[in-house]
## 1
Amino acid sequence: MTIKVALAGAGAFGIKHLDGIKNIPDVEVISVIGRDLAKTQEVADKYGIQHVTDDLDEALKIQELDAVILCTPTQMHASQSIACLKAGKHVQVEIPLCDELKAGLEVARLANETGKVAMVGHTRRFNPSHQYVHNMVLAGEINIQQMDVQTYFFRRTNTNALGQARSWTDHLLWHHAAHTVDLFAYQANSPIVKANAVQGPIHPVLGIAMDMSIQLQAANGAICTLSLSFNNDGPLGTYFRYIGDTGTYIARYDDLFTGKEEQIDVSQVAVSMNGIELQDREFFAAIREGREPNSSVQKVLPCYQVLHDLEQQLNG
């Protein structure tokens, strides 16, 4: 059986999903949705997708459509996930699930009610580098004592990963911190019980904090320090240092190194070295097997509770 998919949001991340899906058998993208029809048509032509629209509801009416991948602006994630579930479609939404907790709780409620697969793109759970560490944790070969994480971008204007103008404002807490808050609990194999945050000055135009520092502690005692910035002028990206009781590891996206900068071969961890492709493979496998996926809405909800609590603290 071929799973028929619609992709909403044909920007930088949507294209990463289309490239990943090309490597997954028996999956076909039959519709692409974007607010700029000319640009969306270009993407559809390149990937041989027949249906193009600027209206998600129009795509949801396609009878043979099984699932939707949402790579749209953060502010639309929860409402569009709800629309997909109400239309009887499986949904994978890019991180973050929501930018307010009550909306995320409603997505979780609907996922339970409909029985559809509802998954969030917490890619760090799927990157081979982080999978390698997670497998060691589960095997009892290491216990994480501390994670030290830097998430740094240079984004003083509204631009996306391709440097193109954005119609929406990104957010350090609800988007970029979500990756690490979820990953810390996942890798520590223990729920977060303490969380603290401070933020720098609010940008006069964008209306968001451009710098933030977060401290976390898990129930088992492990700690995490996360530094985030939109003011950092290179190098860009997120860098993870795992300090464990049996070793130190540094993860840079799909690559992994020891604390002494010796590269570790993670090519055999999974069927691909591409975290986005592995994320999509899990989504489609969960649909086929009728099971809850890794990074289901239900599994990542504790992360959004922590983000909510941190936001209350920052606004207090």
## 2
Amino acid sequence: IFLIAFLGGLFSNKTYSPHFAMPVFMHSHAPGGLPPSIPFANIVNFFTRENRLEKVADIGADPNNVPPSFTLPDTDGLVRISLTTKEVVSEVAPGIFFNYWTFDKQVPGPFLRIRQNDTVELTLTNDISSMHHHNIDLHAVTGPGGGAAVTHVGPGETKSFTWKALQPGLYVYHCAMPNVSTHNSHGQYGLILVEPEGGLPPVNKEFYLMQGELYTAGSLGKKGLVAFDSKALLDGQPNYVTFNGKIEGEPRMSLNVGDRVRFYVGNGGVNLISSFHIIGEIFDTVYPNASIGGAMEYNTQTAQVLPGGASIIEVTFDVPGNYLIVDHALARMNKGAWAVVEVKGPENPEIFKSMDAETKEMEKMSH
């Protein structure tokens, strides 16, 4: 009886890979048949081949890199976009390294910008150094898998497809290779803006930010090369929640008092809803769920950004200073979910001023 109970306990406590409960056609697969859920066999595989992976100095996409509003198509009428999937190693924070899976060696991938009714030819290449197969699902695409069904590329392969941008909006793109959640939580996501034919209203500045989750083995702040933790992924407990792939060091967003700013905000997921908030500002205009043409919100304090979703947020900064961007589920700040906007220019005492003792005394004397 004891032996049967012991064996039964072992079996009932067996840990299955993340694809266990998924549809069969979505089960994980990779060269050699090893699932990219990072069980022990894949950890060994990674460390035996880790030296092949490029070490990227800065994985975080520059939030200033937003392409101009309109790009002419080629002479044959096609707008051509090329992306490369590549697995690299980079720092989450100083001394903490992670194996990121990327589009064009950055997290998030490049900000893509087209117009409604453009016909796009998208080419996806998987770098020869990659250890896994990849593809791309663009939420802006109407067609099987958003393009994922026809862009399954092994290491060293390239595939292309064409599609027509039917509806304006700000859309997420991501790798949809099984296991999808594993690929996304390694950093394989980005945003594509499909502008309406007349474009969006002009602003002074545009920034690109995506929240993402990193599921790493060990405790928060563990130094060295940290492995992916599939159990933490399934439990929805990331060690790190970041804007643009890593914990921010020096602020990278800067503007002037009076600038009207548009933030293109996405959520690469895979588990958490983002409560996007700027401490010390009120959003003038929010395009909920990044809908262009739908009802908009005005004078909003916090914008909800769903996993695999986006929002467009416009705000005018009237007072100089450093403004903290956060996910207002504030414990996530402790995991890295913050960024800084520097606003430069003259003080605006009609809107905001300090009233310390010295200031009050000077005001008395002036009266």
## 3
Amino acid sequence: MKGKLAAWACLAALGLLLARSAEAAQAVRDGLALCAGSVIPALFPFLAVSGLLTALDAGASPALGPLARLLGCSRAGARAFLLGLTGSYPVGARTVAQLYRRGGISRREACRLLLFSNNCGPAFILGVAGLGCFGSLRAGVLLWGVHILAALVIALALPRQAAEPPARPALVPALIAAVRDAAGTMVYICGFVVFFLVLLRVMGRVTGLSHPVLSGAVELTQGILALPHTRRGFVWAAGLLGWGGLSVHGQSAAVLSGTDLPMGPYLAAKAAHAAVSVLLAWPVSMCL
């Protein structure tokens, strides 16, 4: 039954794309321009460097011990959390998957890390949400603070364990693999950005539904930029940043492919992150 419903849904989507081919084509062009102008310049260098750090087990120094103890994970896991906070979606999920594939963390720790380590980064929150939506760097800083605090709340609410890192590989093979994997990941990311932008545009034209929260639940950037510049808009922004959007979840699923890490608990954790962010953002919004 589910297979038949999926087949009918795909046929309906094809018919819709044919009927709205001009809008779909423009959405593809806009999506590709977004990828070339913003997504690739912002993410590709960070994906390559974070992949190299993970491969070499660099950065998992004793200095990460306090954070690892706070999060209840290994130092490698603490590094994944930091990379996820600074690199933006889906760097955290990719780092967790890389650590798990090479035996740096157990499956149990990987599943746990995935629940709070895949987050939005400061470049997007400060630039797009803060300055782009609210015209205020202060608003961006407050949103990033809420985002980090909500991720920590999720982490502290989970059971704890740790793992030891494996031996480090040689530099040159690790560098080649890091750049190669970063390029492949960018293809996934841009593909999902374009796909969900087309879906959002076409469905918006057909249904007339264009509320920023609905848009942001599908594709984060479009929803954030459409929010009102009010306290309520600030709270909605915090919730959307915590959720990430279906486009981000598709990217995360892509970087987790080939592992046995489940998406169900991850999606539940992102919904919880959104809810906690909304609760934290309401009193913080009075500081605007």
## 4
Amino acid sequence: MPELPEVEVVRRGLERHVVGTRIESIAVAHPRSIRRHLEGEADLVARLTGQHVDAVARRGKFLWLRMRPAEEALVVHLGMSGQLLVEEPSAPREKHCHALFDLSDGRQLRFVDQRTFGAMWVSPGGAALPTEIAHIGRDLFDPEIDLEEAAQRMRRRRSTVKRAMLDQSLVSGIGNIYADESLWRARLHPLTPTNAMSQRQAVELWQVARGVMVEALEQGGTSFDKLYVNVNGSSGYFGRSLDVYGREGEPCHRCGTPIVRESFMNRSSHRCPRCQRL
């Protein structure tokens, strides 16, 4: 699933190519893509047709296009395989193109989703912050995030450190890849109890995580296949710089010990058994 750096790459691409355009028409090819818009396709089309895209915002893994003059938001979650592509109308239609927006500059914004786990919906009055996502925590790219407060909240949890990092109500945007990478850099075992961490340790972990994701953002995010791409269809290259995620059996870049993969919350954790002892 795309995490914070990948979603921010998409946001920046949309900001360059879509902001300032008007939505001329909309075609929905798969109703599952708008399942979270409970009023249905006709209502979504009526609300958005003729609206101008004023800005593209993000919190964690959620994107939203701010509309004017209605002050509504088109909220998008990419799910496992969602893509937002800006293309010429003459470009071949993707097999899994589930929604298509004709823009006033002659191009199209296409929502492509092979696994159909992604979703989009209109949030009435949600231009500043859609109410449906107001409960999730600020992310590490948010200039208003308070790392000291986030560290305190994490340490108060009766949990383990990786589970806490994946809790989107605490700090949003971190998923399996960047949790593993951050814990390796911080030399922390994923099962470290959060209430056993010092305040300094907790703050430093959030700082490390932000640094990892800044590096990923600079390289266009992490791509393992063609399911994650930017709005122009290009892939990210941070996957070539990963230290532990997906490197089971390969030597640790720090000490040479083979990386291990362990089961964790119906997914996998990757760590160095020497550098990250419990």
